[in-house]
Write a structure and sequence with these properties.
alpha/beta, TIM Barrel
């Protein structure tokens, strides 16, 4: 089984270096200091034109809330449409309602527009009351291809049992991307416990 290491980056140079140092895929963001926002169209286009590995683009118009107004949803739809026209591998998004449940209606709308791109629900899922219940809901949507999660905790290492349960629940075709403090230094230990296929982090590979 091939392990996929996805590196999140917010600059052209980091994207180039990630590919050069063995990343299997990148998640392209703006403002990683704010946990990742939608990158500029200029950056998306430049990275897409220069990398050979798959690129997934963060679609997140603001920080820190995942509750979006109609205007913000329109902005997300515009950004998704740009990514579609360009032909990136996928988009990464997530919406909550005021009660911190997944806003399924908005997720359905965004994911439907995004197809045929891969659609991944990001760590907004870790802010819901039950990550497992949230994933069971997402599994009913055929337009969703996976989730990025640390199992409801800040760090994956604190959610080993939850992550294993999630991996058991999801079909092989649905990506469970383990995230949250995953680095090249703790990767081997974490993987030996979780035994996942997809992992994500800023420092998941060592930049030489």
């Amino acid at each position: 089984m091939q392990i996929i290491k996805e590196v999140c980056v917010d600059s052209f140079n980091d994207a180039i270096n990630a590919e050069k140092n063995g990343a299997n895929r990148i998640e392209l963001c703006g403002r990683l200091d704010l946990d990742g926002l939608t990158p500029s169209k200029k950056l998306i286009s430049k990275v897409f034109s220069n990398l050979k590995i798959p690129i997934r683009v963060m679609i997140r118009p603001k920080h820190p809330s995942f509750v979006y107004s109609d205007d913000e949803i329109l902005q997300m739809l515009e950004d998704i449409t740009y990514c579609k026209e360009l032909g990136v591998d996928g988009v990464v998004l997530g919406c909550l309602n005021e009660n911190s449940y997944l806003d399924i209606e908005k997720i359905d709308l965004l994911s439907k527009i995004a197809k045929p791109l891969n659609v991944i629900i990001h760590k907004a899922i870790d802010s819901t009351e039950s990550v497992i219940d949230s994933i069971l809901l997402l599994l009913k949507n055929e337009n969703i291809n996976g989730v990025l999660t640390s199992g409801g905790q800040q760090f994956a290492k604190d959610s080993i049992e939850t992550l294993k349960k999630i991996l058991d629940l999801a079909p092989d075709s649905f990506e469970i991307i383990c995230a949250g403090g995953v680095t090249y230094e703790n990767f081997n230990k974490l993987h030996s416990l979780v035994k996942g296929k997809y992992y994500h982090g800023k420092k998941i590979i060592k930049f030489k």
